[in-house]
Amino acid sequence: MDLALKAEPMATESLSPKKERAINTKYADETLRILQLHGNSVGSLTTEKEKALRRKLYWRIFGLLSAINLLLFIDKSTLGYAAILGLFEETGITKAQYNNLGTFFYVGYIVAQWPGHYAMQKLPFGKFVAALVFMWGVILLLHCVATTYAALVVLRLALGVAESVVVPAMEVTIGMFFNRYEQSFLQPFLWLTSAAAPVCAAFISYGLLWSHSAILPWKLFMIITGGVSVLLSVLVWFQYPNNPAEAMFLSLEERIHTIKRVHESSKSSIEQKQFKKSQFKETLRDPISWLFTLQSFTLVMSNNLTYGQQNLITKALGVDSLGSTLVAAAGGGFGVLFCLAGAYALRWWPSNLAFHGLFWCIPAIAGGIGMVAIDWDQKLGMLACLLLAGHTYGNTYIIALGWTTSSAAGYTKKLTRNVMFMVGYSIANICSPQIWVPSDAPRYYGAWISMIVVSWVGTPLILFIIRFLLKRRNAQRKAWAASLTSEERKTHELGVVEELDENGSMIRREVEIAMLDLTDMENPSFIYPI
Fold it and tell me: What stretches pass through the bilayer (predicted)?
């Protein structure tokens, strides 16, 4: 048996009296050892200490994640900017082949999902992330020697593999170091950097269009972004911690308090190195996992608008290459403002996630309708609708991505659900470039109508179905908890870990339930965020 539980998992719908839950130490949370050795030797977490700890985590963890995310999304947009920096002229590719390059990136992305997540669980977490950043930097640099369609296909496949699990890794890291409340508003703040990426990329492109180098601007763009990525990978190698227990920039007391804050908030484990088949199977049986996968697919069907088509549509409207980069910068700045608004909305109203998701899709719907209905000669109105459609629904993606993992417990279950979410994301990105049929240019009515219906109307509907199911589960759990005596409630808050000492004798230690790495279905005390 892959998980040494002494009792059967508890289903959400039929919560039964608790039998003792005991597991071998190797199946417990990776942070168990530091808590056993030092958990009782540190002082209490005062308000002043917690403020200082949060500041340190914001600067050291969140700051590093923001830098990675900024470069990641600049790198994702390299093909879109290369399109106006001389890519077509040098390589001789067609518009259909250009769309295919966007598709091939996500073929590599989806193929690497499961191997990447498995490696993420088994290998030292921080070093694994650093290796990914280094790989994508080198692959971007290699774009400079690609002058044919076939060479670009190979590089886009490889880049998709390198970037495939970076976003899930960052999501896992946020869950390791921050409590649920902090996660709710840090998610949008992190994705401010993805909204800011087009601004940075646009100004780099604008400067390169003024260059008179023998090297074409699109290759210089790859050199700059790839080189900075390689340099960042060195910083990540030395600064990215595997988990809170190994975060050397924190004192021992701060590491203990970080772990306890996360455990108290999530009632779930922080990291676990053993792949648990029972959790994998549970994830596949849980309808919530499939609903999150479906909404990932529906929303991301609109993703190629921003990262592949926006600059080309802008040029079709009569804006030259220099002007297109400024329009992209304006769109990025617009997206940053929307992310800021979303972050503050979640900070002050952290619940009702489905309503938040719906709210940020409404401007995209309005922009999409405008792109279909407004006369093509109304250039300013068309540009406004283009930016409104492409830079507002990102908040919905952020909310759903964070909700995917925060509504699950058990490390293998979280990783498996991440894989499913990213598979939906990848399939949508494979399909997304293909809805922009060249013969439909420049209006692309079919593409716009499909995004309005599938992405910006369909996705909120799915989120409300998820909300309904999780709210029903929470009601059952609260009713069950209310029926317990104080003694019964205490037994559900504790579990047992077992290990052999140096003499071969079995040692049993009582620990908090979060240390057992149980899933949300196995732990009836887990309350779903809605």
Answer: 57-74, 128-151, 157-177, 189-209, 215-238, 326-346, 353-374, 380-403, 415-436, 448-470
